[in-house]
């Protein structure tokens, strides 16, 4: 089975971030980057499928040069080769919306004719959750999102999809297909020294975004349908309430608040 | 014979009433001489048949690329102290140790006696025991043989005692895995006893057929003994002096990986000459196992079996094999139960370095991805993603730094206060930091913390993940260099060790010390309590055995009252169970190490337990909580010092008001 995993490099979780002077994005200086979490799970799924059924895992990532580090990490964990859709700087890709990026990705992987394309459910930075499904449309493939488990069944796949409120859906679909993967259902493997050393000899095909666009003018950024207007740091809200009364009354009040105000139970 | 000697040498007779020499066995026929020569050859050939094989395995093992024959003075001293004086053998097990030492010293004394003895068979008189003339022969005949006789007596008594111990008292750590007694040890003991007895007898009989018979008996014992040496654990007679002399030179020295194909100890081809030499030197005394906290609490890890496992591997497959080391001969599970406390390496009388072996095997498993462990994987991912072992957001550390108003290090302060994962993220660890900060402020020391600090990589290092370890070490070294840090002080012995020793592979770390060393220097400025509190101090492995710091933390712990000692303390301290990355792994097999140690500490009757490591602290806190309510107070030495300062303050205020 030939599996393509689309991965994205995002600012490290919990990194201390500042908004840049234009209020349009975060200040990238001093920020460390890592692999988008759900993409890491997508990669893990792909590697497990390969271990069980053989085949090849190819990662594709769109991003500036720094994304190379994340690509190498994926190779170290066991991907066989990579395609780096490289932007010349931090801003080149900002001109594209999810559709634009999906077009670029589709163009760079079209020739691979993969049996399965996996992406993370959504990115930790923009959180649009669209790239994967648009990619499926562009490639003309069936897709399913929020996937927790993939099994090979006959010529197709059986997948487990997470719905809301503890509900799940079992879906069968034919390959080739596109799946977007939900985090947290398997254990991620750790990168090893041996993996890193082997990764050095693996192929990373670098395609410059500009070259790709030059070869196919339809990939040029059009007026984006979604524009990022302003970014803000979340406001810290802290409200503490002391619930008085007897322990039984306090507990009853707490349960009510949790149920109807905070709505967590 | 004595009479004639006495008469012929009247001037000596005045001093030595009975000059002692072995009885003259008389002349040997040509048949006897040929027989002797054939037997010697046979004995030597039988010796070499096995020893040659062992030597070949050692020499054919991979070279130790990082080994340097430096520090000759220290090597000579270790050799003198550990081999010649048998210091380790005696110190750690005084009675049997002394018995062993006497056997060893008798062997040394017998070097000349034996040479002379064999020469006699060929009609030579090397030491002049027959024709007593000239000062050499007089010195030997009148002093040396007598001295050797004294050693022989001591040796005979000792070996008999050791025999009784092994076969009748039967301490468990001498047991083999199959619980069989080592009969070869019995045979060897019998031979040594016979060698001594025949020698002593020869001092008392006159020349004649008895002397001749004794000579042959002694000779046969010798010739049987020699080939037995390489075939049994008595190989250590030949190898251990080399093992001790060629040690890696420091405690738990983990060698750097060399080149792109080195991932640690994966297969036979990765065993280095030092490891192979050590594997063949093990004398199966079981001291390592006796002190191993894992083995003592029902884990399958047995450091002696780890070494013997390598030996069996080498015997069966040799040092070029591609067969994994972990599997049939050593279990991966066992190797990952080690807390890296170092008790084994510290104890081993023949200089075997268990930690480079155990960590080496872990590296082989982790660096290649063969170790699959949910907790381990989670830890490594946490270290990679969050750069701290607790997997928390770096923002949490920032909040703590702000809340405590810890100054940021900017080059103007004397110390960089290293928080570490425990000090930066763990609630108990933070309490220790807060107390230590109070004390530093009280003493007027200037310090600052790094804006960003990553785990030192200790758990990754000990669990054999070189990739994560290197990333962390390099990033930290760079940050420290940027801030021009000269001196680090840390509350965590694991951080101290890793920064000072393990980081060296990637750069030059700043000077670093443990807070116990800092506090001990200021002991005089800290108020002493005159309560009748009884304080027991628990030596953290990474401060004691790893760093040789025993008295400094005690001097601070004793601020709270009078010290009592646990049965196992100082260099024999028993691990808390957290080291080697184990604090982050899953539930232990068998009894928890921490519970065992906590009981040992409680048994001293102390009212306060003094700790000097945030890991020990958490382990004991949980263990004490589990054991019941009237347990002693548990305090880090920094907390003890801070409490003393607080307790003294109202008094000072009152005094100044008066
Ligand atoms: S280091 Fe400690 S836990 Fe590990 S084998 Fe040696 S004695 Fe046992
Ligand atoms: S490794 Fe050392 S301490 Fe352990 S049994 Fe062998 S010789 Fe004794």
From TrEMBL, chain A:
Domain of life: Bacteria
InterPro entries recorded: ET-Flavoprotein_bsu_CS, ETF_a/b_N, ETF_b, ETF_beta_N, Rossmann-like_a/b/a_fold
PROSITE patterns listed in its UniProt record: ETF_BETA (PS01065)
Electron transfer flavoprotein alpha/beta-subunit N-terminal domain segment(s): 23-216
Alphabetical keyword list: Electron transport, Transport
Family, as annotated: Belongs to the ETF beta-subunit/FixA family.
Protein name: Electron transfer flavoprotein subunit beta
Automatic annotation (TrEMBL), chain B:
Record's keyword annotation contains DNA damage: no
Protein name as it appears in the record: (Fe-S)-binding protein
This protein's UniProt keywords: 4Fe-4S, Iron, Iron-sulfur, Membrane, Metal-binding, Oxidoreductase, Transmembrane, Transmembrane helix
Transmembrane segments: 33-53, 98-123, 143-164, 185-204
Keyword Iron-sulfur in annotation: yes
Gene3D superfamilies in the record: Alpha-helical ferredoxin
InterPro entries cross-referenced by the UniProt entry: 4Fe4S_Fe-S-bd, 4Fe4S_Fe_S_CS, Cys_rich_dom, HdrC_iron-sulfur_subunit, Helical_ferredxn, NarG-like_sf
Organism name: Acidicapsa dinghuensis
Pfam families (alphabetical): CCG (PF02754), Fer4_9 (PF13187)
């Amino acid at each position: 089975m030939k599996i393509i995993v689309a991965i994205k490099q995002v600012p490290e979780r919990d990194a201390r971030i500042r908004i840049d002077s234009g209020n349009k994005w975060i200040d990238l200086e001093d920020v460390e980057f890592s692999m988008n979490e759900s993409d890491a799970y997508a990669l893990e799924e792909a590697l497990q499928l390969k271990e069980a059924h053989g085949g090849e895992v190819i990662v594709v990532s769109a991003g500036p040069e720094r994304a190379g580090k994340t690509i190498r990490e994926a190779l170290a964990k066991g991907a066989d080769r990579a395609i780096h859709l490289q932007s010349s700087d931090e801003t080149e890709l900002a001109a594209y919306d999810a559709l634009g990026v999906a077009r670029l990705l589709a163009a760079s992987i079209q020739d691979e004719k993969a049996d399965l394309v996996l992406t993370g459910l959504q990115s930790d930075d923009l959180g649009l959750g669209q790239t994967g499904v648009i990619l499926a449309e562009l490639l003309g493939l069936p897709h399913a999102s929020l996937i927790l488990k993939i099994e090979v069944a006959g010529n197709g796949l059986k997948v487990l999809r997470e719905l809301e409120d503890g509900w799940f859906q079992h879906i069968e679909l034919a390959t080739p297909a596109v799946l977007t993967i939900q985090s947290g259902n398997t254990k991620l493997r750790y990168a090893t020294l041996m993996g890193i050393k082997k990764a050095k000899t693996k192929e990373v095909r670098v395609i410059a975004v500009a070259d790709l666009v030059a070869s196919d003018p339809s990939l040029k950024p059009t007026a984006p349908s979604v524009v990022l207007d302003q970014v803000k740091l979340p406001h810290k809200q802290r409200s503490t309430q002391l619930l008085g009364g007897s322990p039984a009354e306090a507990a009853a009040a707490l349960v009510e608040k949790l149920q109807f105000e905070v709505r967590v139970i | 014979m004595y009479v004639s000697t006495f008469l012929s040498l009247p001037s000596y007779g005045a001093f030595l009433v009975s000059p002692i020499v072995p009885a003259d066995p008389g002349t040997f026929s040509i048949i006897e001489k040929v027989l002797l020569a054939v037997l010697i050859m046979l004995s030597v050939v039988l010796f070499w048949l096995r020893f040659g094989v062992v030597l070949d395995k050692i020499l054919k093992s991979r070279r130790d690329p990082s080994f340097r024959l430096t520090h000759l003075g220290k090597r000579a001293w270790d050799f003198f102290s550990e081999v010649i004086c048998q210091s380790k053998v005696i110190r750690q097990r005084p009675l049997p140790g002394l018995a062993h030492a006497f056997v060893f010293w008798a062997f040394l004394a017998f070097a000349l006696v034996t040479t002379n003895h064999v020469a006699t068979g060929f009609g030579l008189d090397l030491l002049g025991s027959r024709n007593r003339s000239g000062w050499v022969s007089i010195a030997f005949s009148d002093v040396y043989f007598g001295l050797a006789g004294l050693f022989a007596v001591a040796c005979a008594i000792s070996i008999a005692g050791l025999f009784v111990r092994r076969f009748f008292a039967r301490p468990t750590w001498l047991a083999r895995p199959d619980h069989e007694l080592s009969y070869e040890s019995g045979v060897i003991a019998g031979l040594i006893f016979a060698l001594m007895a025949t020698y002593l007898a020869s001092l008392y009989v006159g020349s004649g057929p008895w002397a001749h018979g004794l000579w042959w008996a002694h000779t046969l014992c010798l010739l049987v003994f020699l080939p037995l040496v390489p075939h049994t654990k008595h190989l250590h007679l030949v190898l251990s002096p080399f093992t001790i002399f060629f040690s890696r030179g420091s405690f738990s020295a983990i060698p750097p990986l060399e080149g792109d194909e080195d991932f640690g100890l994966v297969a036979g081809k990765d065993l280095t000459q030092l490891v192979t030499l050590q594997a063949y030197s093990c004398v199966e005394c079981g001291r390592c196992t006796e002190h191993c906290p894992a083995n003592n609490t029902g884990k399958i890890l047995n450091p002696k079996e780890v070494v013997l496992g390598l030996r069996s591997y080498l015997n069966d497959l040799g040092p070029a094999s591609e067969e994994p080391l972990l599997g049939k001969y050593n279990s991966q599970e066992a190797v990952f139960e080690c807390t890296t406390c170092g008790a084994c390496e510290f104890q081993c009388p023949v200089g075997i370095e268990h930690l480079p072996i155990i960590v080496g095997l872990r590296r082989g498993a982790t660096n290649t991805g063969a170790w699959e462990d949910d907790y381990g994987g989670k830890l490594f991912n946490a270290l990679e993603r969050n750069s701290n072992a607790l997997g928390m957001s770096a923002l949490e550390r920032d909040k703590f730094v702000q809340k405590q108003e810890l100054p940021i290090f900017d080059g103007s302060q004397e110390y960089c206060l290293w928080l570490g994962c425990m000090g930066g993220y763990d609630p108990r660890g933070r309490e220790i930091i807060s107390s230590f900060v109070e004390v530093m402020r009280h003493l007027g020391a200037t310090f600052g913390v790094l804006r960003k600090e990553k785990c030192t990589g200790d758990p990754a290092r000990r669990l054999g993940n070189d990739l994560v370890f290197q990333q962390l070490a390099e990033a930290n070294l760079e940050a420290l260099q940027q801030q021009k840090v000269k001196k680090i002080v840390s509350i965590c012995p694991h951080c101290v060790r890793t920064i000072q020793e393990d980081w060296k592979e990637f750069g030059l770390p700043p000077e670093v010390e443990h807070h116990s060393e800092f506090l001990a220097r200021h002991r005089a400025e800290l108020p002493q309590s005159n309560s009748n509190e009884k304080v027991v101090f628990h030596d953290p492995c990474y401060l004691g055995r790893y760093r040789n710091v025993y008295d400094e933390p005690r001097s601070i712990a004793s601020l709270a009252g009078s010290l009592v000692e646990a049965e196992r303390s100082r260099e024999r301290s028993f691990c808390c169970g957290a080291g080697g990355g184990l604090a982050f792994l899953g539930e232990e097999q068998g009894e928890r190490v921490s519970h065992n140690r906590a009981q040992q500490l409680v048994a001293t009757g102390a009212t306060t337990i003094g700790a000097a490591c945030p890991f020990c602290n958490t382990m004991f806190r949980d263990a004490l909580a589990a054991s019941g309510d009237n347990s002693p107070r548990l305090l880090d030495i920094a907390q003890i010092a801070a409490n003393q300062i607080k307790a003294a303050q109202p008094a000072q205020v009152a005094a100044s008001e008066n």
